[in-house]
Amino acid sequence: MSTDSQLKELALHDISVRFGGLTALDNVSLRVAPGRIVGVIGPNGAGKTTLFNVICGFVQPTSGSLTLDGRPWRPRPHHLSRLGIARTLQGVGQFAGMTVLENVMVGARHRHAESEALAALERCGVDRYASAYPGALPYAIRKRIELARALVAKPRILMLDEPAGGLDADEIAWLGALIKATGTTVLLVEHHMDLVMSVCDEILVLDFGKPIALGSPEEISADPKVTEAYLGAAA
Amino acid sequence: MTTIESRPETATKAPPGAKRRRRVHPVIVIALGAVLVVALTYVLPPFRNYQLATVGAYFCVTAGLTVLTGLNGQLSLGHGALMATGAYTLALAQNRWESLPLSFALAVLVTTGVGAVIGLAAARLRGPYLAGLTLAVAIVVPSVTSTFDETFNSDQGLSVFLEPPPEQYPMEQWQAWLCWAAALVVVLLLALLVRGRFGRDLRAVRDDETAAKLAGINIARTQVLAFVVSAACAGVAGALFAYLAQSVSPGAFPLTLSLFLLMAIVIGGLGSLFGALWGALLLVVLPALSQSVGEQTGSQRLEGNLALIVFGVVLVVVMLAAPGGLASIPSRISRLIRRNR
Description:
The complex is a heterodimer. Chain A is α/β, with parallel strands linked by helices. Chain A has 2 domains: 3-84 and 155-231, P-loop containing nucleotide triphosphate hydrolases (Rossmann fold), CATH 3.40.50; 95-153, no CATH class. Chain A is 34% helix and 26% strand. The radius of gyration of chain A is 18 Å and the shape is globular. Chain B is globular and about 55 Å long. The two termini of chain B are 25 Å apart. Mean pLDDT of chain B is 86; it is low at 1-20. The chains are: A alpha/beta, B mainly alpha. Chain A binds chain B through residues 56, 58, 77-82, 86-87, 89, 93-98, 101-102, 105-107, 109, 113, 118, 122, 127-138, 149, 153, and chain B through 1-4, 6-8, 10-12, 14-18, 20-21, 197, 200-201, 203-204, 206-208, 210-219, 271. Chain B: This is Branched-chain amino acid transport system permease protein.
């Protein structure tokens, strides 16, 4: 493997997605280096989740390409886990008919599924709910279970889609610490600015599908285009 | 829904690393079942042994169907047709080669193949469309037998040539042994299959396809596999029915059979192999019961339709009293006791 490909574990090259007349993503490029925490932010409808869906293979880009470790890559959802990519879902996609432990075990792709799953639940502080059913649990707990299911696969790239949604300040602080401690590459879609600014090495800002800024948290918070996109030109 | 039943407060009280339910290994349950069945065959009169054999045959198909519908969420109205496939294959093979093990193997093999074809189509369909496809399969059986009447002999069906059992055993006892040997092997294989990763994958696909995909599960392959496994079980059951009746005809596999099978696993408890056993029992007991009631009233019209009514009433009553089916009653009772303590 060349050093170039190591520097770009995952890369998007001029990705565009059009749904009929709507342009959800417009020439978005992003290079994600190993171990980096990359945030994707933008107002509602900016195309953040669509970007995730392209990387996961749920949405085929209209144009553009992806590379993984420098090689051209066409993602398929059920191959991600094998490639070491785990993703959480925005609306906590859990298996209602299975216990919390079983839910996490589904994410474990190796032999000691049960002990690994328990360890993941413990890491997320929700191991006491192992034998409960997720539907009866509070939203914040289910978010943690979702996170445990992603972590149990021991991914090298962790994709988090609004993990802080519905969490209180303490829980967000806990989440930030956990994200920093994973040591893996993290792609983070999040509305909660404090979290994004505190954990991310790099931030991509989208507005109506267009990349309007890319840089460190300091650069992003000083960028007038970003303020404009969030507050509107007239504001 | 299980979500309503489970109570979070009991979960929150549990200490970290809370004790999890220890399950008895399926091999032990099956071995106990085998002992019980063999003992039963020595005390039951011949006709009851024949009924016991029929329960065993039904158990094969209900177990397979409950894995497909209960655990994987695929609704099949065509399992009666899959049973017919197994039955006709057994009849044709047996009349040609006169070797029961070979005929059984062929019956299972052919049904599995047919199941794979239906399963491939089924994996692309959801909900009512899947039900429609399998319904069509169930309806097509009589037409197939009459279209290819040289092979299947139309409505008359085929008789099955069988060697008599060893002299020291009565026919019915022998039948009960064979049917239950098959049933217990089928159920043991299913139990071993669904308790591990495959079982988790089945349920994950049923509950949330997107999340299942992200966990690395190939949805289509899991669904086709579930259908194939379930079809193989239906094939065993069909072959056993041909063996028990020593004949096959389209009349033995009507659409109502498929509906009865589905009702039976719902009453028994969807997704539970014990529930499948309850269902199989009801499939034999309820029609027999309604037939004797019908005979007493002397009305022929009632006699033919009473079973369906009885099944419907039982379904409604069980769903009201125990929405999880008969198999969920023990855990409901134990939960009730714990709550009142």
